[in-house]
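Following up on my earlier message about phenylalanine. Here are the inputs again, as you asked, copied directly from the submission form:
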Amino acid sequence: MTDAIPQLAAYDDATLDRAFATLATEVTKSVTSEDPEAFRLHWLGRKQGRLKLVSDAWLKSAPAEARKPLGIRFNQLKQQIEAALEAPAANRQVYIQNRIDISLPGTVRSPGIPHPLLTTMDRVVEVFHHLGYSTSLGPQVESDFYNFEALNFPPNHPARDTQDTLQIAGQQSKASRDRLLMRTHTSPVQIRSMLAGPPPLRLVIPGKVHRNDAADATHSPIFHQVEGLCVDTNITFSDLKGTLDHAMRALFGSAVKTRFFPSFFPFTEPSADVQISCIFCGGKGCRKCKHSGWIELLGCGMVDPAVFEAVTAERRRLGLDPTPYDPARISGFAFGMGVERIAMILHGVSDIGHFYSGDLRFLEQFA
Ligand code: PHE
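Thanks, got it. Here's what our run produced:
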């Protein structure tokens, strides 16, 4: 700490700038976070402080007109030293090097949050991860074979009318099974997963689906589903009931009851719609459940043997081992639920459009 006092050759602005820049670098280098008091004494000490020594040496011999520019520069240097002393120890060096004025008010940044639909989708997926399921994904642009045919919707079958499909243009020259469309449900990933490997399978399939539906308070042409598929030997309807009953209680609270209503899907037999006891009135009946005490939530059923047969035929066509999905040896169940509907019930949202509006007043409530 005994550096010689630098010589000042002249008093023009350029020389002064250079001389003070050298001093500023010296300040930056001598900042130590361990011993701020030593740093303070070294620069600002009343008698032997370096600032005092330099100012004595330079000011004394300075011509009158150089006193002002010298004074201004000394003040700036002093401020730099004082800022270094005020900054939190670890940051001091960084502040000085970047010449950050830490007395300026900061910019408020609001950190992003996961979208409520993603949070809901993750919650559903997690419930099944805890049951040993893994996640599978598939494309949103799908072929007719995966979305319909292999799921036992034959070409021109009226069951296709239940899923208002958005077709990709210019597909007429292709064979009907290869025509592309926006997937109307996540069920095609059932087929993709069964072609990808043999049972046992326990899969959850979250994703975006598309239907040619007019948007209203409960419909959107793009929405989200979570599909489930379980295939193994000896899977029964009571496995399906137990699994979904557990999942509904994990999602909506342990007091929730489930009931299974006969329904129809081409790819499950028997099929059911699952209802949960109304989480708003506990089943007594209120406006939310249209005074029935029950809320309809998802579709499910035992995998139709026709689906296993379609998978077996496709495996054979692709040169894969056709035996693992022989419907005489294995069985399974599948289910599918709408993510928006679950999020609306969980958060009391009355219009599905809020999820897509990008309105921060809505989204901030989930922060
Ligand atoms: N894919 C059906 C739908 O979108 C739901 C479903 C999935 C039903 C799996 C049964 C089994 O309506």
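One observation from looking it over: Residues 185, 187, 227, 265, 268, 299-301, 334-336 surround phenylalanine (CB under 6 Å). Hope that helps, and feel free to reply on this thread.
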